[in-house]
Amino acid sequence: MNSKLLFLLSILVFLSFSQLSLVSCRKAKTNGFTLDLIHRDSPLSPYYNPSITPSQRLRDACHRSFSRASFFTKASIHPTTPFNHHAIQSDIVPIPAEYLMKISIGTPPRETFAIADTGSDLTWIQCKPCTECFDQIFPLFNPRKSSTYKIIGCHSKQCEAVGQTVCVRKNVCQYEMNYGDNSYSVGDIASETFTFASTKSKTNKKVQNISIPQVIFGCGHDNGGTFSNFTAGIVGLGGSKVSFIKQLDKQIKGKFSYCLIPMDLSLPFSFDPNITSKINFGPKAVVSGPNVLTTPIIPKYPDTFYYLNLESVSVGGKKLKYFKSSQLMSSSSAAADEDLGNIIIDSGTTLTIVPEGFYKKLESTLVEKIKGKRKKDPSDYFPLCYETKSLAKFPKIVFHFTDADVELLPMSTFAEVDKNLTCLLIVNGGVDGLAIYGNLAQMNFHIGYDLVNHKLSFLPTDCTKH
Fold first, then answer.
1. Domain Peptidase A1 spans what residues (predicted)?
2. Nearest Cα to Cα of residue 198 among 461, 443, 38, 20
3. Fewest CB atoms less than 10 Å from the CB: which of 36, 43, 92, 465?
């Protein structure tokens, strides 16, 4: 088994839990809180399948990236439609993302796992009684056994905030999500207490659980589709007012950050289970220092996504002006203004995806700069590949966002996806595809979101020591 590739994908999220005394988020808000992040395919995950080869893990992640981009595109180009009890195209995408949160729900707390996703808004999990549910390893949440569970009424502000709802059983706010891959979730909008285990720090070795009351979420009674058994639902970390981040606004002041552990594929490594990625909320999420790079977060429809403005990409010192297909058709200033916010940053997409026209320009420039023997990827997932043994070094790649020049790590842009086959991890998203800055490109950066001032910060960081 190629352990280097296994570690390549071990950068995402699983949140550890401990049975310690609870404190409310209001008490913890002064200092904020930090949680551990571990990849869904990591050996540390309880759902790790050792029979899957590292190459297949990477190809599966590639497939999820393309699927996710496809449905993101549908969500961004189709405006929200009035609620239809039988069919609706949602802005929330349930493609199995890369991050898991181990949480506890209710009083007394019941632990479960859910996908943590910056590309989603409404938090929902599977609940009893379940008309039809996809398989999950942990028991279904039973709201009848929780003293803090509360159904949300049809005419409440909370129901209105969710948006796509219908009134059932006289006064129950019901959501229905149908997705482009035929996955779906239908259930009641409710409020409940969510509990998270705040990570120990170097100065404070004691772990306290953070208890957050009255979180608005979906209690799903009819769910199905492409969801895997490693999850019970989704924790929405997106930008709309119903997201978990916005619901915590009073406590965290619109600030969260994460630091994804880096990998050096040129060297053998020993996997240290004591080193994990981190996600921070509140004051602990502030990214500061002399080397911080800051770029605007562009407000744009749909407000689920965090849009950045990419101006150009440099390859070995050669700067390529970034463009989308729509910019080829119109050079007017109005069109240029509309194209501000031309790429989203997403924790749940592995690869970085750019539009077809720009990708072709990027690939041809890389071919000019790279000295090595081209080799075809048998799976056709990766268009630009080389025979690993023939490669000397890769050109430096810099993404030039507005006011922020971010130099990618070599292991963020190229990887040995199979024996003696090294491929580019920036891929072609098609003519109308939504551009995505994926999580491999975010490795070894402390990335901070300031949603009050609409700014995103990049700080080059050794995330193994963060």
1. 99-459
2. 20
3. 465
- 462 with 262: CB under 8 angstroms? yes
HSE-up (13 A, CA, CB side) for residue 322:
23
Q: Write the CB contacts of 42 (distance below 8 Å, at least 6 apart in sequence).
A: 9, 10, 12, 14, 48
Q: Do 69 and 343 form a contact (C-beta atoms < 8 A)? A: no
Q: Where would I find the H helices in 117-262?
A: 157-162, 244-247, 249-252
Instruction: Spell out where 225-371 has E strands.
Output: 233-236, 255-259, 277-281, 293-296, 307-308, 310-315, 318-321, 343-345, 352-354
Q: Name the pTM for this structure.
A: 0.80
SS3 73: helix
* Alpha carbon distances (Å) from 443 to 124, 131, 179, 429: 28, 41, 29, 21
Q: What is the pLDDT of residues 113-158, one digit of tens each?
A: 887 788 888 899 999 999 899 988 889 999 999 999 999 999 999 9
Say how many Å lie between the first and final Cα of the chain, rounded: 29
Active-site annotation holder among 36, 41, 346, 450: 346
Round to whole Å and give the CA distance between 76 and 125: 24
- Is 117 annotated in the active site? yes
Cis peptide bond N-terminal to 273, omega within 30: no
The number of CA neighbours under 13 Å toward the Cβ of 403 is: 11
Strand residues in 83-171 grouped as ranges (E): 100-105, 110-117, 124-126, 150-151, 165-168
* Those residues with Cβ within 8 angstroms of residue 332's Cβ, 6 or more apart along the chain or in another chain: none
86-90, 121-125, 192-196, 313-317 — which one is most confidently predicted on average? 313-317
C-beta separation of 34 from 437 below 8 A: no
The Cα 310–Cα 435 span in angstroms is 10
Q: What CA–CA distance (Å, rounded) separates 337 from 122?
A: 30
The pLDDT tens digits of the residues spanning 349-359 come to 888 999 999 99
Task: State the catalytic residue, choosing from 36, 41, 91, 117.
Answer: 117
Structure tokens at 309: 């403005």
Say which residues have a Cβ less than 8 Å from residue 241's Cβ, sequence separation at least 6: 161
Q: How big is the CA angle at 36 (ends 269 and 266), to the nearest 5 degrees?
A: 20
